[in-house]
Protein 1
Amino acid sequence: MTRGQIANVDLVKQVNSSAVYRLIDSQGPISRVKIAELSNLAPASVTKITRTLLEHGLIREMEHQASTGGRRAISLTTVTRDFHLVSVKLGREELRLSLYDLDGQVLARDTLAFPRQQQDALLADLAGQIQRFVRRHGAGLRLIALAVVMPGLTDALRGQVIYHPSYPLAGVPLADRLRQATGLPVFIGNDIRALALAEHYFGASRDCLDSVLVSVHHGVGAGIITEGRIFKSLGRDVAEIGHIRVDPLGDRCHCGNFGCLETMVADAALLRQAEKMLAQGYQSLLDPQALTMAELCRAALAGDRLARNVLERAAEHLGQALAIMVNLFNPQKVLLTGALCDAERIVFPLIGKAIEYQSLPSFHQGLPIVRAHFQDDQTIGGLALVKRALLEGELLQLIIEPKV
Ligand SMILES: [Zn+2]
């Protein structure tokens, strides 16, 4: 047998095992007969695959009364509580670490300052922090993976960082480096794209296959889910909605262009606009010394004209960019996350209106615009990357047949 044939046999095994695991995950408790029927696999193959999954504790049997009465039937369901992972958000000079089980329960969290430093020192420090966290919280648990999510751009397929806004990591094979340091399979990805997937698996877009998530914080980012998958997240980044030009005469963006959406609706931009209007003498409840997004939203909801104005303009611009996404991807749901969601009552209807005026009627009719479920969990995207690797077979295969 040639090397190519061996690889193909492995691939077929991986594809079949993951197809069975996916069915049990999405439809369990489910019988072996039903799995065979839905997967088009021979019953003998299903028996063999489920035996392997059972041996590794990935699924378990449940006995119950068959719907037809008579003898008791056996169904299969996935085991999620026994498997754990560490998810790291490599943020802007900040590191967040969380320990989850596969069910999404959080067992431990840690947040620490993580200053800029030289590449080698940075990588050693990062590995050291992760190892300490694992030692402190992961003892006795079955850890199956490490995930790292970050702002900027990543090549998830190669496990490489393309660009990070705070650290000199361009071109670094981060997944390989951390795998060597921890001995765990490592999955990396952009934080917003991973968050969109987390919303699809566990959150607000669980009920649909196509959705768009937009996040407004330091910058403006988006994640597109099409047919239950992140649209293009493995090699090439997409959905850089923050750099859609909204105002040709606008401020200079860090990308080099002028008037990008990000320069107009990111948190800092909104606070700058409010500050400027206060300095010009507009009447307002806002205290210029204590200007935050929370205060801006609170004042707007209390009827403050200035605060309302700033948020309304932001909503219109966001809506304009979102309408482009709606025209391109026809999502079943639009999710928003960010500080301006505090003023949901003001912001969301205006975004809806802008989408309504600027996209195809059949695309926007009845289109829900909702708050993302995971507003405050910055590491949840990592859990989604691990779950994806399990469902799509790559990680499942490593658990079933660990590479020595
Ligand atoms: Zn830009």
Protein 2
Amino acid sequence: MKKRIGVKLGVTFAVLVSFLFAAPTQHYQVEAAKSKTEKTVKIKRTANKKVTVKVKKYVDGDTTRFKLKNGKIVTAKYLLIKAPELKKENPYAQEAKDRTKEILKNAEKIQIEYDKGAKRDSKKRELVYVWADGKLVQETLANEGLAVARSTKGKNTKYLDKIKKAEEKAKEQSRNIWAIENYAQAGKGYNQTAADEYKKAQAEVRAAKKAEAERLKKEQEAKEAEEKRAAEQAEAARKAEEKRLAEEAEAAKKAEEERIAQEAAAQQAAAAQAQAEAEAQAQQQAQAAEAAQGQTVYVTPTGSKYHTHKCGNGTYTPATLEEAQNRGLTACAKCY
Ligand SMILES: [Zn+2]
């Protein structure tokens, strides 16, 4: 039993390894086989029979590439409608493409159906009705004003009335393509002159909008610059005022200090002067006292003067000046 499992594992491993190394070649072989299949596989184009398909590529409003069940990829042109020209960037061409894409993306089941007439057009595109979850996409597009109905000369007319009715409704309500004057032509196609005029007008509107937006932007920028400049100016003024006030305060402070210092100096000087005066006076007094003490004058017993010598008749006796002054005598006018 164990041995068998071992053998089985060995074989599996060998097979895996061979696949691993053979992979590139195998890949090309598969691709080659595929393209061969695509060329050789025949498509049954049966009228009135719905065939389930998958989307390969969204081309435009009325063209889609589908993948059939057998792997074949086909380009389908939607029967009986014409969506605006995407290559010419005609009005609502992009909208039509987007809408078709939306319808098919949201559909769980997509089917194509051939009619009794021509199955392919001159470009070998399949001429089909396209169904999304049981609803005819051609009818939806015509109803929403994203495609006009297109009558054919042949036998592909199965849903023409249905689509024309939808187109009529869209036209009545001026939906999308029908909102542009002379653009959509019921049952036919589109007037290129009207499309070009519309595009030109749209471009002009866009240019005007752009210019207006630019103007507003410039205006806003100028406003912001002005606001910034004003703010800077205000800030500078505020700073200058602050500086001025600080300088003023500093100057006042200095002046006050100077005043105080001057006052103090004046007081000091006055005090010094008073002291000097007092000192001088004291010295004078001392000198006078000293002088009075040492000096000899002559006095008479009854006279009110003192003299430097016996300056008249009478009895003069010597005395110190101090004594004479103490007695209340004053200097003789003749002697002094
Ligand atoms: Zn005298």
Protein 3
Amino acid sequence: MLEIRREKLRANGRSPHFRAALARLRTETAEAARIGEVDFAGARGQWTHLYHCHADGAALRFDWEQPGCHVCPLCGTVYAGEPFDGCWISIAHNRIAKAVYHAALLHAIEPDEALATTAKRYMLEYAEHYSDYAVHGEIPYNGPGKLFAQTLDEAHWMLDLAAGYSLLSGELAEEENSRIRAGLLAPCAEFLIAHKEMQIHNHAVLITSAIGALGILLGDDAVASAGLDGEYGLRDQIARGILGDGFWYEGSFTYHFYALRALLSFSLLAEGTAWDVRNSAQLKAMFDFPLRVVLPGGRLPALNDSGPSELLVAYASLYEAGLDFYGDTRHRLLLQEAYYGQEAGRAACNEEGCVTFQARDSLEALLYGGELPDTEAETGSVLQAWTERSFTSAESGLTKLVRPAGWHALLKHGPFGGEHDHLDRLGLQLGYEGRPVLTDPGTTAYGVPAHYGWFKHTLAHNAPSVGGFDQPPRDGRLAQAHDRAWGTWAESAVDWTEYGYRMQSSIFLPEELCPWDERPYAGVTFRRIVALADDLALDVVLAEALEAREFCLAQHIAGEWEVPCDAWLPNYHAFGAIDGRWLSAHRGRMSGPRETLRAKLRAGGRMRLDGWCSVPSSMSLADTPDNPPTASRATLIRSTQAVRTAMFVHAYRFEDEQAEPAASAPKEGLDVSPTEDGGWRIELRTGGGARRFRLHWHDTSAEFGMTDDL
Ligand SMILES: [Zn+2]
Ligand SMILES: [Zn+2]
């Protein structure tokens, strides 16, 4: 670690501006004192994704005192035996590595021999036993581990130990240093090199970061080069894994920041050496991208395998490093917003508990933090201004449309993201004044049945499909995006006329985790236009195939349907290969040419949905899993008969919850009719007048616009 970094750590640790960060470091270091009797000899960790309640998906409670007893904090179920005991071992050793790192940091700020001795003792324990740990783990998509069940976890643990060791090694006796290097660092490097992933992937970023860090600590350029250089080395991960606009290709903010965190862990040891990666323009772009996609309400969208939508300020601590590296004003503004602005004090909760963001209390603040004046003038509305700016990028394949104080939309038309993709090209999310309306819940822990059973499938998304079958991997395409006086709109497309996708030669997909079937999609094309006017969101989907197909369009609302029960009959229609148990209260009926449905939104207010389909279709309603899976979304699936072309048009309007939904005047509603020149006229009549749009599907991009506003 650079001397100037250590100096900054010591100076920040003594500065009153970082009192909260020092206090938190002290608290976290105290965790080390709670570490009880842990077996280092013969330790064999299990995959911690299995450390979840089977009933509700909650993470089980880890207790240092109870290595054989694992309690669900939600329902109280007690789990024992394997795999839970093995998961406990993994969590324990993770915490020990963190304790070593935290103790080393605190010792650097306020020297304390007892802390240094504890950290040293753990490293020497590992040095004594590491070579004897048995290679094990048969986790899908993952190489094995020695202490852990997968290579990834081994790399995580080692990155913490490596940072701790780099701070402490100068104080260890020569003989102790040799034991740790020969018994722990070198054999771990050898193991990780042997299990490098031959693909571009977030795991590979972690593993090559750990190898690179070990090479630097060992002063062994061959080891560092095994981490950094060549095909699938860390530099290749940066070059091919980060898309042109800075989004990590797996298309999930969870993995975006996960990869970024690993790069920062590596950078902490690499800065100032020949292996420094900070001058990469793509690393800088990784910091910048989320600032452009943040949605009204300050949230980053849930996409692919990610947790539920999170606040951007939840990641503020990483921007301490961004600001230190690049001096970008936007990073400073985000930090000021997080610590002093309107976002300060807001809480985000997950299964581990709630975090608020007002405190500048992170390790990153201690390591990278600089002066950050609390200037009212510069904070407050900064984040809001970012959230209200539309954004479109063909590279990440995300288009954000925003009408301030009205609708916002997020349209997904990006490259296939590999293992963590949700097969939802042309997926749509909608919100109104920051409230979620059409949502993507991300997913839950991978050991919970709803993950592989529901969340990862096309049908779980607001996306078109053939019969509810999963979309085979393809890259989406942005056709166009425009701002007009009446509103903003974008068109995207995806097709299965040719085989192949951007990342095909860079990733590895085991057959058992490829749920799609190419056949239903052969020759299919989907196009989607989303338009936002002030009080209206208009969604048009065109589905075409060379041979007749049953097309489906699913819509999942964060709320409840308000529909009379008597018109709907129990429905057993099967969608693709989806298990019917995920569609509860499944009911359906034939659809009229025009339909109006209402839903009460969970976040307040009511949504009116006017729908139209160009061919005879049926409608299914169901309650389907939200995230966490104990909650549900209100799902509508429109399905056509087997046809070669179908067009779905939906108009969304927000209604005040207080106002009783007036029985629509007979003339209110949505009308779609063909025009003489082969196009379409879309008319939405409301109490306040009528809005007319014209649409003409040309070969590669459509002609679309509002014709008048009466
Ligand atoms: Zn439970
Ligand atoms: Zn999803």
Protein 4
Amino acid sequence: LIGTRSLTTEIPGIDKLEAEAKDNIRQGIKAYDALQKIRAAKPATSGETSQDVATTEARSSFEDIGHQLGYALLLKRYVNDPRQATEEQIAQAARDTIPHVPTLFWSFRIMVGLGMFFILLTTVFFWLSARRQLDRYPLLLRVAVFAIPLPWVAIELGWVVAEFGRQPWIIEGVLPTAAAVSNLGAGTVLLTILGFAALYTVLIVIEMTLMIKAIRKGPDPDEKPEAKLISENLVPAAE
Ligand code: HEM
């Protein structure tokens, strides 16, 4: 249901996906070859030559299988010209299309488990709060406090599911990550990370200072929320 929005579509197993990737890589190599031929073709001069015929063939071949080109680019990690790839390199590139299974298995399940836990926790608290019984279960209040950072954990794991799960692609079947890395130097990237770290450190210090201040101050003992609502005519006063 999650993968295909359908209850009947077959979900291929990993071995099958790997075999399909191998076929796609072979087609991709042909597309790469056609593209190189088109690129190498000289601008047309008068009269049709044998080279024109070859280019026309390459063009029609590229129109058929050009969408598989991305698979040939997967080989670029191992060989400069995908047409020179050995059988072993093709097999390796096909294996690369399967991300590390345990990482995905667990990050997805922990994220979903946390999601279910949040639904349960919210339901319980809604129920107790509606019946004004929140203060009867101090253990639950403790659980609630310890649950505060968990959505963050779920978000990070969701991000792992989405980003790690689509490797080795930036755009699935079209553009491999290895072909899309930017050419920024390590120094530039380091500088950006340090900038972010500094900015967010300042923000967390401000946030924490404000929070601690508010907690130290504590609630105003004279302030009764219900009295305020009544005074603002938002709820009728009790008889
Ligand atoms: C309740 C059960 C949940 C289910 C069934 C679920 C399902 C999914 C799925 C299928 C994806 C992958 C989407 C994709 O890229 O194709 C995903 C990604 C993600 N999930 Fe969950 N999730 C659940 C709970 C949560 C919770 C509780 C959080 C955070 C509080 C969360 C945060 C995320 C994030 C941040 C992503 C990455 C989105 C992106 O970058 O595209 N998920 N989730």
